[in-house]
Structure formats: structure tokens, C-alpha cells
Amino acid sequence: MTAAALFEGVVHGRAAVQRRAIAKAITLLESTRAEHRAQADELLTALLPHTGTAFRLGISGTPGVGKSTFIEALGLHLIGLGHRVAVLAVDPSSSVSGGAILGDKTRMERLSVHEKAYIRPSPSSGTLGGVAEKTREAMLVCEAAGHDLLIVETVGVGQSELAVAGMTDMFVLMQLPHAGDELQAIKKGVMEWADLVLINKADTDPHAATQAQAQIRSSLRLPGQHGRPENARHGALWQPLVLQVSALQGQGVDRFCAAVAQFRALQTANGQLVARRERQALAWMWERIDAGLARAFREHPQVKSLLPRMQADVVAGRVAASTAARTLLLAQATTE
Amino acid sequence: MTAAALFEGVVHGRAAVQRRAIAKAITLLESTRAEHRAQADELLTALLPHTGTAFRLGISGTPGVGKSTFIEALGLHLIGLGHRVAVLAVDPSSSVSGGAILGDKTRMERLSVHEKAYIRPSPSSGTLGGVAEKTREAMLVCEAAGHDLLIVETVGVGQSELAVAGMTDMFVLMQLPHAGDELQAIKKGVMEWADLVLINKADTDPHAATQAQAQIRSSLRLPGQHGRPENARHGALWQPLVLQVSALQGQGVDRFCAAVAQFRALQTANGQLVARRERQALAWMWERIDAGLARAFREHPQVKSLLPRMQADVVAGRVAASTAARTLLLAQATTE
Lengths: 336, 336
Prior knowledge:
- Helix content of chain A is 54%, strand content 11%.
- Chain A has a seven-stranded parallel beta sheet, sandwiched between helices.
- Chain A is built from 14 helices and seven strands.
- Chain A starts with a helix and ends with a helix.
- At the A-B interface, helix 3, helix 7, helix 9, helix 12 and helix 13 of A face helix 3, helix 7, helix 9, helix 12 and helix 13 of B.
């Protein structure tokens, strides 16, 4: 299928035709074959004018926090309000395990079969940077196909949360109603990225949930958290919220949606939505450039042949690390 | 002065001669002029066999926590035990302000004039990566000159703490005896890097200090903090300590030194000291390679001429970030 045919199917296709075109387009974008890459770039460039109006919601939380249950409840609620919802995943472990637990359709039984929803598991190969890039591109496909609410989920481990916060308009952190968990998130610095913290399963321990809510609220109010100068240019700033929900009981989903709408309205009015997307797009470009430079360097024949000895010399303390770096850089530059 | 002459002065010079040679060697290593770089690499390679036995101690804390007072007390105490002490600084703000507050000799009046001590302020130009590289290299000079205890200080802001933790054998975080501060450190994830946390000025508020000590201890015991698999290979592992001191009164300095000695003995016995240095050296090499690749990319004529339009297209949503990245990478690769 050509890029033009895929474009037609994604943007103008109906029902099953569109669904198949979305899947094929994403598969093309995920391909690592060089001849597919030119086609993929052609498709991306064609799709771009049809993107930009959807809202991009990132949701993170450790395994067991109830992400799938919440996303299914949220997705069905939003569809009820007339939206079309796409769910994508960034799974840092999928490159190791080969399987993708996140975005697993069997975990979202009702949402996955809904004609107004599209669910795509995590790309199952590549580095985290590669997986994140594929997910960003898949997001553009879903958006061009008319999905106006994009949900990107990830697990609360490692760098994947940063990657998801860096590709969405609003980043939501899900927590359980016990101490420890939120302290972990505070400790890892992830809390700083949250626009909203959800305490799920609040009904299982209302007292703990209320305590956790107060604790997280106070941690979010620490100096240094808000009022970054870059944010202070346009009017009022968003103050992160901490809400209690019970996804299994469907409690709090409407309150959450109201908070998202409020966030979106404020960020649009104060210019932060546009500013954030511009920053994200440039950061994404530079991240891909850095990754490309690193790959080309490691694959350079002269570097490849020098590297093992250089690394051994550095580890053994025979050559300073900065000297080794300069030697290798020079080897690449002078033999190209 | 040739690299060979500088080497002689640094390694075999006496008193004032050696002191001058150290200063000149560090100045040479800090030079960004291309013709100095070859000389600098020659000097570094010659000095390396004379390094590796000193202990490298990183000390971080927000302004006002009492770093200088503590380092002076510690340095004089160590000199009293027969050591030679060098104090270096990584100041992330020095590239902006041009001045270096850290490692300022006027703040360590007694230590700075001691013949067994050498104090060097932060390199005052370049990116944080550049400043860190210069400090690493200066550390090697001081070590080759016979300083067996190297202290690298930094302020508790931004990435500089990670840089210092990544160039030292033991990373110490200084805190004040009030809540808030240590929560900040926990939040930023810096606490995870600390091998030891010092609560300074404990005498000004003994109750708060004891409370902070308990709070930090409990946060350091959270799951995920210890028992990383890579650390579990050789015997007993270090458990981070939280100590109270009062640098101004000289209280707790001997207890701190005992803890450092304990840490060093354990890390030597379980193989972690060597493993950490090997990891640091390789990470340092790759960091300098990445920085060099990024610089060469940005300075490439074809990239320079394409970049403004590409960035504008990406920001405006006309070209996908990944497409722009590939276009720029191709432009560099095909016109070299």
C-alpha cells in the first residue's frame, strides 16, 4: 500500500476500512527497514495538517494501580460524551520481553470492541527512545483519523514516565491509597511532572486515601514546584490537583473529566498548551538527532575497530576518559 | 611550559614549585584552544599512572547549608591525621555569573593557606558537562601531586549533583535540620545518590535535627533504594547513613571521618569501589563523545543552514519532529 493510499484510508476511510488503514499506517511507521522510512516520512508529512486539535493525555502508574480499569471507564465515559478515543502505550519492558502488557485489549474488554475507540499496544522492540518515537507517530495517525482524545499509558518505572510526560498535554500520575507509593514517586522526581494525581481504589481504604491526598497535596506545594519563570508570562497558572477515584466502581470519573476540561481551558487561555507542544516538538527532534548521531558513531568502521581497546584502556586507567573520547571522535571525523 | 615540564613539577616538585605546577597544569587542561588540547592529553596520559589511590569525596548541599565551614573543619582534621587534601568545585552557575562562589578560598581561610591543602574554584566557563570534565581532570592533577583526599563540592541545584556523584567514590548530601529541605532532596531524586546524609547546624535545633534524621532514614529505607542487582554480587552492601554534625562547633567531624573510613573499607572489600570507578570512567567517556558529536553536528555548515527553517517547520507543525531529525542527519552525512 502506498503512502497516498494509507493517507486516504486513515483520513477519509470509514469504519473497518479506516481501522485497517490505521493499523497498516502504524505498522509502516514502526518498520525499521530503510525503504519504508521514506514512505513513512511522506505519510507523516501528509497527515500532519490533520493533527493538532486532539487532546493528549498521559497516564502513568505502577502495575496494579488500576490503569486499565480506569482507562476503560474513562474511555467509555468520554465516548458517551461524543468523543472518539485512542489508547496507546509506552512500555519500557516490551523491548526486553517482546510482549506488551500495556494497551492489552483483553484488559479493556468493552472499550476495545467499541467502534469509537482504537487501542494499540506498545511497540515491542527498540530502545525506550525508539518506542517513544513510534508511539508519538502512532498518536499522529490516530489524531488524523479523527480521534480527538488520545490516551498514552505507561508504567511507573524508569524513564518511560518522562517520555510520556514529554509527548502529552497533561500528565496524570495514578497512586494507591497507601503511604510509600507516593513517597516513591516524590523521591523519583516524577511527582514534579504530574499535572494531576489520582488516588485510585480510594473506596478500599477511605482513611488512607484521604491521608495520601493531603500528603501529596502538601508535597506538590513545596517551593520550586511551581511558578517556574518560563510559565509566568501569561496569566494564571495551573495548580496540580489531587483527586480520589474508584475506577472499578466508576466513582470520580466525571470529576476527573471536569478537571481535565478545566486544565485544557486554562492552558489554552494562558498560552501554555501551545508553548508546551512547541517545546515537546523541538525536544523530540533533538532527541532523535542525538540518537541518530550516537548510532552512526557506534556503527562507524574506524570507531568500531578502536572502541574495544579504548574502553579497556579507560577501565584500566591507562587513558583518561576525555582523551579516549577525543581520540574516537577524531577517528570518525578523519575517516569519513 | 611543555607537558613534560608540567608533569615533572606536578609529580616531583616540592612546596611552592609543585603548587605553581598544579595551577599551570589545571589551566592548561581548562584551555579550549585546540593546540593546547594535544599537550593536555599528553599531560593527562603521563599523570594517569600516578593516580587511583586517592579517595574522592563528593559533597553537595544548598547554599547556606554550611559546606565551606564543614569542608574547612574536615580538611584541617584530615591534615591533622597526616593526609593531604584538595578541594575542587563544580559550580553550575559559574558559567553564567563568570564568578565561582564554590571553592572560594576566602571562605576557607585556614585551610586555603595550609601547605598540605590545595583549593581550586570551579572552572568559570562552558556547559555543565564541560565544567564537570575540567573538574575531573583537575582531580587527576591533584591526585598525581600526592593529595590523597579529594573533595569535590557542588550546590544542591540541577544536574551538578549527579555530575559530582558520578566522579566521586562517595557522595555526601548536606541538609539543614528543618523539614522541607530534605523533602526537596527526596523529591528531586538526589537522595538516592547519597551514600551519607549530613544534617549540619544540628546544635541550632536539636529536636528538628533528630526529627529530620529519622525522616531521612526512613525515606532511605524505601524499597527500590537498595539491593540493586548489580550491587549484590560481592558480599555486604553499604547502607546509607544519616549523621548529625555541627561544622561551626567542630562537632561530629571525627564521627563523619570514621564513617568515611568504614565506607571505604567496605567498598574496597566488596569490589564496589573498583566497579564504581570503572562505570564512572566509561560513562565519562560516552558523555564526552555525545557532547562532541552534538557540537560537530551543530557546527556542520549544511546543518547550520538548514536548521532555522527545520526548527520553524517543526514548531509550526508542518514537519514531524522525527522527519526533521532524519533530514538534518542526512544533510550532515551526505555533505561531509
